[in-house]
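We both want to read discrete structure tokens more fluently, so let's practise on a single case. Would you write everything just below, so we can both look at the same thing?
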Amino acid sequence: MRKILLIIFYVIAIISAIGSILSILRNAEIRYLKMLDFPRIQLFIASLICLIALWIIIKKWKWYDYLIIFGLLSGLFINSTFLINYTSIVPVEVPWAKDLKSSNDQFSLLLANVKMSNKNAQPLIELIDLKKPDLILAMEVDEWWNEELKVLKNEFPYSQHTINEVAYGMVLYSKFPLKEVEVDYLNNKKVPSFETTITLVNGKNISFHSVHPVPPTHFKDLPDNAGQQATALQKLGKEIKGRKFPTIVAGDLNDVVWSYVDDLTGTENILYDVRVGRGFFNSYNAKSFIMRWPLDHVFVTEEFRLQKLERLPKIGSDHFPMFVKLLLKK
């Protein structure tokens, strides 16, 4: 039994160590290397378990045992440099809101990738009724979902609908006026993103960018970014550099980010991740307890403070909805 366990842990340890070390090449133009950037939590946990198990099981150490242990320690170090940003060890990037005096400076946003194949809108509608957000961003909206969500139009009089049948339809509902809504196609003609100016109750304007870039993996029937010189988020970053108002970027980014927002968008000290210093809030995959990581993100500029950040219950999609309550400081 000890030999069988040793072989099992050897195999898991070697896979974890190699995967973790190769993940350094996360920005290489190779899909499979980029995909190693996603399961960092899982690789970290697997490496730690293997390290402890091998330390206990191995009685007579050989040269390859030391090599495997070195690989595991390297993997733990590599992954921890990314994951540490989502622990309380690191200070928050977006400060907590304090001294709340006026509700006119506050607003909330609910993000939901509904998944086109999910044909039960009621859980999401009930969740919206419960959380009462001011803004709703729904992604993967096809004609069926667009019709189902029209029950929101009385409470959310302002909206933008860009619908398609290839998993990248997008709808934005708002209680606040939407001005100058622009639908952009940053990399693909079937992958929309929104840029709009929102006027809050206090009369202040904010810029809101909603995005849903294509994933690094290739899917036969979905748009692809192969051969592109710049990603959608890098193109978005160029627009944000010239911003006029406090800015929010939100959506299913199909990327784990790990708080390296500047690298992702090509900006520098402009956008800040609301997750940093607070937790992972893994929003994908809602259908798997083990393989989960943060894909749905909210980035804000320095004018905002955070009141609440929540991962909401399942709605039948492979994504958990996310809820963010923000304060625009004076």
